[in-house]
Amino acid sequence: MRASRSLLWKLSIIVLLAVFSQPSFSGDTGSSDETAETGNGHEAAEMQPQRAGNRKGRGGRGGIAQVAEMNWPGKWELFLKSSGVSAMHAILLPLINKVQFYDATIWRISQIKLPPGVPCHVFDHVHNKVDCWAHSVLIDIESGHIRPLSLTTDTWCSSGGLTINGTLVSTGGFQGGANTARYLASCDNCNWVEYPKALAAQRWYSTQATLPDGTFIVVGGRQALNYEYILPEGMDNKKLYDSHLLKETTDREENNLYPFVWLNTDGNLFMFANNRSILLSPKTNKVIKEFPQLPGGARNYPGSASSALLPIRLYVNNPPVIPADVLICGGARQDGYFRADRLKLFDPALNDCARISLNSKRPAWKIEKMPAPRVMSDTVVLPNGKFSSLTARNMEHLDGA
Ligand SMILES: *[C@@H]1O[C@H](CO)[C@@H](O)[C@H](O)[C@H]1NC(C)=O
Ligand SMILES: *[C@@H]1O[C@H](CO)[C@@H](O)[C@H](O)[C@H]1NC(C)=O
């Protein structure tokens, strides 16, 4: 199973996105009452820059949306011929305007060597075998300058996120990387600092999410039907919390890997695994409610759908409830992995896109169809409040409203 999984992961690019919640962005999507304003996805190119400005009077604080050029149709440009390291994981470090790419270390090869003065990683002390390749690079998005960084614990199918001060915290991974928390601070000469015993459980294909105080929770992973909280840097966590959701949704295909975890506006966590979801309190670790099951198949890894928390309207003063909607698009039938792997039956991916309002009195999935089926896609929130769902094969805009 692992061998064939490796084929799957090679195809996947997990893009970790730092989403800036600018109030002026959020006016363009959110609840369905503004569907008409956003129109269909193909209108994205025609949106005028002043739209965002118009919203200012409604409580937006201006900012990036006002100056962002919204009517530019876009153009692909070859920026770098080779990054040296594959972007299995990629994240923008906004304070230094650099993108961090990092890959699995297990193959002990990349296209870029560690810089002079950085010692090679000894991965086999008995036979003194060393790996002198870099598996992490920091790329300056203005100049294209590449800085290779030493990263020794395996980040293959790890998870990660940014702290309030812009530090990248990466958790879990393969073998010796599974219990690791790694820190890469935002400065021009910062290097990774790795803590191989920081996590209580081995985390491979787990999800990291940000809590209201800016710290992190790490949820699930292979043979890890539980979750834990990341302690301050340098401290090793010992405390695990069992997850009934993960226990009840695991199956032959392990369809609950890389669960979707989003911080709700009430401070609780929306957790989605396989076809079920809950709202969990990170304070009491109690399940507050279970949402209706999402019919149609499995939505998490290996037959991954993509998910997004829709932009949140923060401009209403002291509303009793701040709406928060989650989108889940694509996926695969529950036995899809087994059928492909064992029976060589390759079924189409799912083409539905489901949306739920977490804080509504009677939350229900609203299901729309996408023009094409999608598996292992990434959903990106665009500055105009629309979503782009991308896979290697083609790219498409979804109407976020
Ligand atoms: C930034 O956050 C990280 C993770 O919490 C912490 O280890 C580090 O010390 C912080 N750096 C500064 C300059 O506050
Ligand atoms: C969710 O998945 C389980 C099996 O994993 C299945 O029995 C159940 O019918 C599914 N729910 C829906 C609504 O399809």
UniProtKB/TrEMBL annotation:
Domain of life: Eukaryota
Residue ranges of domain Glyoxal oxidase N-terminal in the record: 88-386
InterPro entries reported in the protein's UniProt record: Gal_Oxase/kelch_b-propeller, Gal_Oxidase_central_sf, Glyoxal_oxidase_N
The entry's keywords: Signal
Keyword Disulfide bond: no
Signal peptide: 1-26
Cell inner membrane among keywords: no
Region feature (Disordered): 25-62
Protein name as annotated: BnaA02g13040D protein
